[in-house]
Amino acid sequence: DFIHRFIPSKTGRNDTTLVLLHGTGGNEEDLLPLGQFLAPEAALLGVRGKVLEGGMPRFFRRLAEGVFDEADLIFRTHELARFIDEAASTYELNRARLTAVGYSNGANIAASILLLEPEVFSSAVLLRAMVPLEPEEYPNLQGKKVLMQCGRQDPIIAPENSERLAALLKMSGADVTVHFSNSGHGLTNPELAQAQAWVGKVV
Ligand code: MLT
């Protein structure tokens, strides 16, 4: 089980749910305000990563910044996917409308779920994501919508890496929107406003 925080939708119908996945050192509460900003009507499920790096929660192990422990990543990807399935039953969520919202390490595991467990999310907002792994075969992401917000000056993620992820998702059939801004690894307000507009239209 994962430490998590669930906030039902205001209508109580939980028709759309944002699954909030934090960056390194974050927790299940971190992205709740962002979720409220992106989709005020949605139910919110904030999840805490189980791996600790110097006391900081993450969703999978890494060997160095941007260098992932692939075996752990694969294991954690399936583990998190099963938890989301269970949470969908427990909280009676509409499985056809589960949107991942991930930042940094959380965006990377969300991308990994898209590639290895394509049934889980109907859409995803990937904030500062990179290629988590190269899948052995393309998943079927037909009908899935993905927004990627990337920073051209991001010191952790080269633009080509985010572009490679976008290409992988597109080749798998996803409808991908990629925005690059003049920013670093941290998010800026205009990007979040863009994400809000995208979520309002698409999710
Ligand atoms: C990762 O480990 O997922 C990336 O290096 C991003 C981060 O969490 O800093």
Textual characterization of the structure:
The chain is of the alpha/beta class. The chain has a single domain, classed as Alpha/Beta hydrolase fold, catalytic domain (Rossmann fold). It is built from 5 helices and 11 strands; from the N terminus they run ββαβββββαβαββαβα. The strands form 3 sheets. Strands 1-3-2-8-9-10-11 form a 7-stranded mixed β-sheet, with helices on both faces. Strands 4-5 form a two-stranded antiparallel sheet. Strands 6-7 form a two-stranded antiparallel sheet. The site of D-malate has 9 residues, from helix 3.
Write a concise synopsis of the structure shown.
The chain is an alpha/beta fold and 203 residues long. Helices cover 33% and strands 25% of the residues. Strands 1-3-2-8-9-10-11 form a 7-stranded mixed β-sheet, sandwiched between helices. Strands 4-5 form a two-stranded antiparallel ribbon.
